[in-house]
Amino acid sequence: MRKMIAVFGGTFDPVHFGHLRVALELKEQLALDRLHLLPCHHPPHRAAPETESAHRLAMVKLAVAGDAALWVDDRELKQQGPSYTVKTLESLREEIGKDSALCLAMGADAFLAIDSWHRWQEILDLAHIVVMTRPGWQMPGADLTASGTSSVASDLLKTHGVANVEQLRQQAAGNILPMEVTALEISATQIRRLIATGHSARFLLPDAVLQYIRQHKLYTPVDC
Ligand code: ATP
Question: Domain 4-185 sits in which CATH superfamily?
Answer without folding.
Answer: HUPs (3.40.50.620)
